[in-house]
Write a structure and sequence with these properties.
Elements lengths: L4 E6 L6 H12 L2 E4 H10 L3 H11 L6 H12 L2 H5 L1 E5 L5 H11 L6 E6 L2 H11 L6 H24 L3 E5 L4 H13 L3
Parallel strand pairs: 1-3, 1-4, 2-3, 4-5
The chain binds adenosine monophosphate.
């Protein structure tokens, strides 16, 4: 069995992270760990967490660090994450989450963090077109604002450790996948 590959993917909402994560999973056999998907599943199942998270998510705000760190800690302890490796999508989003991730991983080093880069104007247009229930103009604007204020420092943190690679997220799906695979291959 080959060694596990551990990746983080960053990108604004609407950058196409979900789609490209499917490709990464196909190619590298990774577990796709999306905190947004996990929270949406909790909302759908009406668990205690889901009930608490729904209003926060609908407003485009961030669920608390302690809750998120706990969710990720548990998920990363599961077998698939340890054997196949993972692509972490939507976490860490704050400096406190990045610090928790380092602690959670311990001696399991990350291979890299990919920044799927799509400009604000383009993602805004895509989000408006998508018309998902939680995509109100206010929530879209709030998520983009929090990306700059809370997540940008996390990107800088990965960059300072030579872990960050920026992939141009504009183009056809296939073009972007090709760029992404090349970026990941270069980190392995
Ligand atoms: P996403 O699908 O990654 O855009 O996540 C959808 C929503 O879930 C976000 O707008 C946040 O409200 C919440 N969320 C997902 N991941 C996190 C995280 N790491 N920290 C805080 N909130 C999160």
């Amino acid at each position: 069995m080959s060694n596990p590959i551990r990746l983080v993917i960053f990108g604004r909402q609407g950058a196409g992270k979900g789609t490209q994560c499917v490709r990464l999973v196909e190619r590298f056999g990774l577990a796709h760990i999306s905190t947004g998907d996990m929270l949406r599943a909790a909302v759908a199942a009406e668990t205690e967490l889901g009930l608490r998270a729904k209003a926060v998510m609908d407003a485009g705000n961030l669920v608390g660090d302690e809750i998120m760190n706990g969710i990720v800690r548990e998920r990363l302890a599961e077998d698939d994450a340890n054997t196949a490796g993972f692509v972490l999508d939507g976490f860490p989003r704050t400096s406190a989450q990045a610090e928790a991730l380092v602690q959670i991983l311990g001696d399991r080093t990350l291979h890299g963090a990919v920044n799927l880069d799509v400009p604000i104007a383009e993602v805004t247009e895509r989000m408006m077109a998508r018309g998902r229930e939680d995509d109100t103009p206010e929530a879209i604007a709030r998520r983009l604002e929090l990306y700059e204020s809370e997540t940008r420092p996390v990107l800088d943190w990965f960059d300072a450790r030579d872990l960050l690679v920026t992939v141009d997220g504009l183009g056809t799906e296939a073009e972007i996948t090709e760029r992404l695979f090349a970026a990941v291959d270069a980190r392995l």
